[in-house]
Amino acid sequence: HEAIRKAAREDFMLPAYIVGPSRQREVVRARQYAAWLMRRLLKMSYPQIGYHLSKDHSSVKSMLDRLKEQS
Fold it and tell me: Residue 30 — left, alpha, or beta (φ > 0 → left; ψ -120 to 50 → alpha)?
């Protein structure tokens, strides 16, 4: 998905890292950014975002809630 490629490009990593299982801080941050792009700009649902990120919809919601708390 283009949002995943954009997030990967901005953080200088391969898109495969974003959709993979890594919990490294840099990867998690890029994954959150990709989810944010899909949710806010593309108006995708949590299940749709989860599908693209290989995550459950509840994981996506938690991810975006944590991102909101950090800002």
Answer: alpha
pLDDT in tens, 19-58: 999 999 999 999 999 999 999 999 999 999 999 999 999 9
* Terminal Cα-to-Cα distance of the chain (whole angstroms): 25
- Maximum separation of any 2 CA atoms in the chain, in Å: 27
- The SS3 assignment for 54 reads coil
Render 14-51 in DSSP notation, one character per residue. Answer: -HHHHHSS---HHHHHHHHHHHHIIIIIS---HHHHHH
Q: What is the pTM of this model?
A: 0.93
